[in-house]
Amino acid sequence: MKKIKMLHIQLLPLLSGAQNMMINLLTSLDKNKYEISILSKPGGPLVDKLEELKFHHIPVRSLRRNISILDFIAFFQLYKICKKNKFDIVHTHSSKTGFIGRIAARLAGVPRIIHTVHGFPFHRFQPRYIQKFYQIMESIASHFCDTVVFVNNIERELALAKKIVSPNKAQTIYNGIELPDIKKLRSPITKENFVIGSVLRFWEQKNVINTVKSAIKVCRKSSKINFVFIGDGELFDICKQMIKQAELEKRILLPGWQNNILDWLIGFDVFLLFSRWEGLPISILEAMSVGLPIVASDIKGNNELVSEKNGILVPINDIDKLEDVLTSLPQKKKELSKWGEFSKDLVREKFNMKNFVLSYRRLYES
């Protein structure tokens, strides 16, 4: 039987939420049924991972994260690649590649085009004119694809209310994750104090500066709490300097990016993510899969994963509330245990890999 030729288009060659979601999906598909290629900027951990998994990677050097004159070059390169390879399906990710990728694929005659919104590019922290600009761009791009997949219901409802996407094209597919075998994991963390941990990219979206500021204040209030922040990014050195100036290097650890995330997670008592905006964060799902209670900002995406049954949601502008919540956690051992169990049950029932893969397979093969 003829294989389905499929191209996934990413922007940055990172291994953050959108890229990891894609890899989880692609590794679960039948290789005898699908011929898969992935396009992105060259270099980076994503490309290394794709090489390890023996997926075909197409590098496009002209791709840029910010709006650039090179976007026109990238557009024509994507058009030529789609035209030459005659893909049956093009699946785009991220806002920039979602815009130029959908238009290029449609003009190249690709019969089926899907875009996954991992979080809209517009959010409340931007000026209104920028929000409106991105809404218009998303609305234009939606005319050049067959299905727009949302990873949370709130953004799908927002897109329908603002007429960004027509109802017949909009669909929610929650990110899914496997429940790991906890017995096979080995934590590198030496447990002395109560550990609050996070896995995040050190940039504006993740609100990492305010998160580290809060950690410093909590450590000064309580000698029983330590923090571990796993990840890297452009704000990493600033955060490292903040912790050094506070003389808390032994209690607020920054181990950088790690490949064995689940091993680190089982050493945490609570998972923290105080992002400014999200889609449906893989990092929270991973933490839930090992049975962790969650403290998170009360924003879209986060509040579809976290409730009073498995953690605490804190208003994004209430830093004082966050500090009070974090300081109180060591005294909530009974609640934390119940919250952690509910986290795991939620992954098992609602955010599991089987439902995630099956939903996309139906979309690809319909």
Overview of the structural elements:
The chain has two domains: 187 residues, 3-Layer(aba) Sandwich (Rossmann fold), CATH 3.40.50.2000; 168 residues, Rossmann fold (3-Layer(aba) Sandwich). It is built from 13 helices and 13 strands. The longest helix has 17 residues. The mean pLDDT is 96.
Residues in β-strands, percent: 15-25%
The number of helical elements comes to: 13
Morphology call = globular
Rounded to the nearest angstrom, the radius of gyration is 21 Å
> How many strands appear in the DSSP assignment?
13
CATH architecture of the largest domain: 3-Layer(aba) Sandwich
Under CATH, the topology of the largest domain is which? Rossmann fold
> Mean pLDDT across all residues, rounded?
96
- Uncertain spans: none
Q: At the fourth CATH level, what is the homologous superfamily of the largest domain? A: Glycogen Phosphorylase B
CATH class of the largest domain: Alpha Beta
The helix/strand series, from N terminus to C terminus, equals EHEHEHEHEHEHEEHEHEHEHEEHHH
The profile of the biggest β sheet is:
7 strands, parallel
What structural class do the secondary elements suggest? alpha/beta
Strand order of the largest sheet: 3-2-1-4-5-6-7
| Helix content bin | 40-55%
User: What's the domain count?
Assistant: 2
What's the N-to-C terminus distance?
A: 16 Å
